[in-house]
Amino acid sequence: MKVTLFVTCLTDTFYPRTGMAVVKVLDRLGCQVDFPQEQTCCGQPMFNNGFTEEARALARRMVQVFEDSEYVVTPSGSCAAMIRDYYVDLLKDDHAYAAGAKALAGKTYEFYEFLLKVMKVDLRQLGARWPGKVTYHYSCHLRGIGVTDEAVRLMKQIEGLDYVPLPKAEQCCGFGGTFAIKYPQISGSLVRDKVACIKETAAPYVVSNDAGCTMNISGSCHRDGVKVKFISLAEIIAEALGLLETA
After folding, report:
1. Which of 5, 26, 42, 178 could be a cystine partner for 31, CB 3.0 to 4.6 Å?
2. Could you report the per-residue pLDDT of 148-179, keeping only the tens digit for each?
3. 246 vs 239: CA distance, rounded Å
4. Quick one: how far is CA 105 from the chain centroid?
């Protein structure tokens, strides 16, 4: 199976270990992974701020870059949502790209969605083991692409992992891209509430699979003196399979 990694801007810049973990896990599962260096931003920041033409130009580029990919996998629910929820409409009147946008939307998956829905993985059969207590932040964009409990199901396949549900799990962390800048009081209130919920779990690790959410919540945890470590599920799986040293 051929898989193309769409690493996303924030992951590439701030959390490259997550990208490495995705590649190592997919390789362990027998996938042939490639990485087109021509890939850029998916256009979500421009789209969310009303710069439709700029977003449309990047959508065209993405369609070109991933045209020959069998599957496109990304460690970001928000970027997957941008492609799947908006590309078709953005390019529906562009006869040169409309079909490509639809094709790209149909073959793009968030990482752990891909593991369960396409690969049908069972980490127990691979001997996955990771001793640690974790809670999980469920990012808003995952709902838009129909991802619900996939992360929890995967974590429950890992021996030794103690999963503690996060109170108010479906509540936004307050990031929302430029929402945090335009509405700082609301954003700040939301993230402080999220931090209080994390503290309530007493878990030393927080699994977060969207880099924007991770940056927002981890920053608030630091400011409030809540000492937890943020880690992506890709990193946990890679460590559990002995593909990455424990960070």
Report:
1. 26
2. 999 999 999 999 999 999 999 999 999 988 88
3. 6
4. 16
β partners of residue 2: 32
Structure tokens of 175? 């990031």
pTM, 2 dp: 0.95
Query: Which is nearest to 204 in space by CA: 235, 161, 156?
Result: 161
At residue 5, φ and ψ (nearest 5 deg) are -85, 125
Percent above pLDDT 90 for the chain: 95
Q: Is the pLDDT of residue 247 over 90?
A: no
Class of domain 123-240: alpha beta
Per the CB < 8 A criterion, the answer to whether 38 and 69 are in contact is no
Start and end residues for every CATH 3.40.50 domain found in the chain = 123-240
- Summarised one tens digit per residue, pLDDT across range 35-94 is 999 999 999 999 999 999 999 999 999 999 999 999 999 999 999 999 999 999 999 999
State the Cα–Cα distance between residues 112 and 46, nearest whole angstrom: 26
